[in-house]
Each structure stands twice: as C-alpha cells, then as structure tokens.
Amino acid sequence: MDDDRKTRFEAVYAQTYEQILGYAVRRCDSPEDAADVVAETFAIAWRRVDALPQGEQARLWLYGVARNVLANHRRGTARRRPAALGDDVADLYARTPDSAIEVGAIALAFRELPEADRELLSLVAWEGLDAGRIAHVLGCSRNAARIRLYRARRRFSKALAGAGVAVHIPVEST
C-alpha cells in the first residue's frame, strides 16, 4: 500500500473510530462482539481504501459497512438475540419506581419493533443522522429513508400507546 492510501486510511480511522465503535457497542450483546464488528469494519475499509469516500461521506460509508458486518455477525451466531435497549440499561436511568416501570415499558416496546424499525430509530437517536444520511447508510433514496423513518416512528408511537406510555414522538420527517 502506498503512503498516500495509508495516510488516508489512518486519517479516516482516527476521525471515525469512536463513532463506529459507539455504533457497534449499542447494537452488540457484549464488548467483545462490538470489538469484532469494529475490527472487521476497518479491515474492510483497509482492503477497500480506494472505494472509501472523502470527508463526511466516509463516516456514512463506514456505518453502512458496519451495518453489513453486524448483520453477518448476527446470522453467523445462532445464540445471538436482536440488539435492543435492555431493561437493565434502561433501568439505570430510572429515578422513581413509576419511571422505572415506564422506562421498562419503553424498552419492551422498542425491543418488539421489527429490526429494520429499531435500526432506523437508532440511527436517528444514537448516531444523530438525518434522513439524507440514513439513505446513504442504507443504500436507498432520501425519500425512501424518510418514508421508512416516518412509518417506524408511527409503529413505535403505537407500540408505546399500547404499553400505556404517554409520549409524543414527532412523526415529521427529518
């Protein structure tokens, strides 16, 4: 590998490592699994450094790669349950017995959503992406991403209402 490609990879790695690690940690059952996902993501980036976009697009490209690596990791591990916000993590933020019940209900409603909905909502809430960037990560049009996000938010809102949680979730597209 020539010096320019190596320097470019190292710069992208330094700029995006923590974000990709956070993405993986929030979706894996263990830190070890997250480390495997991150390592494989950057190994692919290393092998495909010529395909690595410039600037902000590199981070979005890496999210897409990490998403695919995570999907492969899940398929390859029969014991893996879908990544979700666990009751144990949700309860860390509970202040009162009543709020602990509500947070648990929110976690349960989130866990029961289809995986595609959880991924969309997570990309907005945890990764801070808008519909255009989500479209890039998912490999679809901006309009398709906006529609999917709108529908995911509606399903989450209905699930919360069904669980007795009174929360207003904006359904306008981002």
Helix-strand blueprint:
Elements: H1 3-25, H2 31-47, H3 56-76, H4 87-92, H5 97-111, H6 115-125, H7 131-138, H8 142-162
Shape assignment: elongated
What is the count of β-strands? Answer: 0
Q: What is the C-alpha radius of gyration, as a whole number of Å?
A: 18 Å
On the 0-100 scale, what is the average pLDDT? 81
Report on this model:
With 174 residues, this protein is an all-alpha fold. The chain has helices at 3-25, 31-47, 56-76, 87-92, 97-111, 115-125, 131-138, 142-162. α2 packs across α3 (56-76), α3 crosses α7 (131-138) and α7 crosses α8 (142-162).
How would you summarize this macromolecular structure in one to three sentences?
The chain has helices at residues 3-25, 31-47, 56-76, 87-92, 97-111, 115-125, 131-138, 142-162. It is an all-alpha fold and 174 residues long.
Notable characteristics:
174 residues, mainly alpha, elongated
